[in-house]
Write a structure and sequence with these properties.
The protein is of the alpha/beta class.
């Protein structure tokens, strides 16, 4: 077993983050079970042909699944958080919701034309192993000729006047300094590009966790799955266009979109 954080193994770290996120996302259900589709999400749906089978990975309280079900879409939501799923089922009794982990989807191979992991659910995965497993699983359940779309927070996002970028860098430096000041005793600080943030969707919700990705990291993860040649990292504008141009290495926008296009059957 590989030790990663001064006596805390990668598996222990993953379990700790999963427990934190269970509480965080359960506390935000009052927002996500009523919030509408964003324009980019509606554009993605409208672009699909009739009857397209969609999987909403990390559906939470059912924001996307509920809205697309109401539009007559063929969509299934999957999430590991039972409290969020209960809220989703209550808000959308006609929807299809499945309990399961993103890195071990309880669904058959080649069963969805579109596999969506939207609004940064992917960033809730705490370890590289979980991120690789999740990409592998989404690729597995995607049908030949289909597409996997993964939206992620961007580590290089600067924010207004660069303040978000500065805050993230200062926070990372402060954690490292605090640990060195403690003579490297106890658990090490969070890994690079991991943050704990205050909930802002519902009052009283617990803080959440996110691993902020880079375009390079997303390509490395797809290479680990053996699907690098099918991957493009683009912007929100790119994902709703037909060309989907790749972003530069230090893309500065708030989000990035990983597009995986699965070859059709020969």
């Amino acid at each position: 077993m590989t030790t990663t954080h001064g006596g805390i193994t990668e598996i222990d770290y993953g379990a700790m983050i999963r427990a934190l996120n269970q509480v965080h996302y359960a506390g935000e259900t009052s927002f996500y079970d009523t919030a509408p589709l964003r324009p980019c999400e509606e554009a993605l749906y409208r672009r699909l042909g009739p009857g397209a089978r969609i999987l909403d990975v990390g559906c939470g309280a059912g924001r996307v699944t509920r809205a697309i079900t109401a539009l007559g879409g063929n969509i299934v939501g999957v999430d590991i958080n039972e409290a969020a799923l209960a809220a989703a089922r209550f808000a959308c009794p006609s929807g299809t919701f499945v309990h399961g982990s993103m890195n071990a989807l309880p669904l058959p191979a080649n069963s969805f034309d579109q596999v969506w992991c939207l609004r940064f659910s992917f960033n809730a995965l705490a370890t590289e192993a979980e991120r690789v497993e999740t990409l592998h699983e989404m690729w597995r359940v995607c049908a030949p000729g289909g597409t996997v779309l993964v939206e992620t927070f961007n580590w290089h996002y600067a924010g207004r006047l660069g303040l978000v970028r500065i805050a993230n860098l200062l926070d990372m430096a402060a954690r490292a300094a605090r640990w060195r000041g403690q003579r490297r005793a106890g658990s090490r600080p969070l890994p690079a590009r991991d943050i704990i943030y205050l909930a802002n969707k519902a009052s009283g919700a617990a803080p959440g966790y996110a691993h902020l990705t880079t375009a390079h990291e997303l390509y490395v993860l797809t290479a680990a799955c053996g699907i690098r040649q099918h991957a493009t990292v683009t912007s929100e504008d790119g994902v709703v266009s037909t060309s989907a141009p790749p972003v530069r290495a230090r893309h500065r926008r708030y989000s990035m979109w990983l597009i995986l296009r699965k070859p059709g059957e020969r």
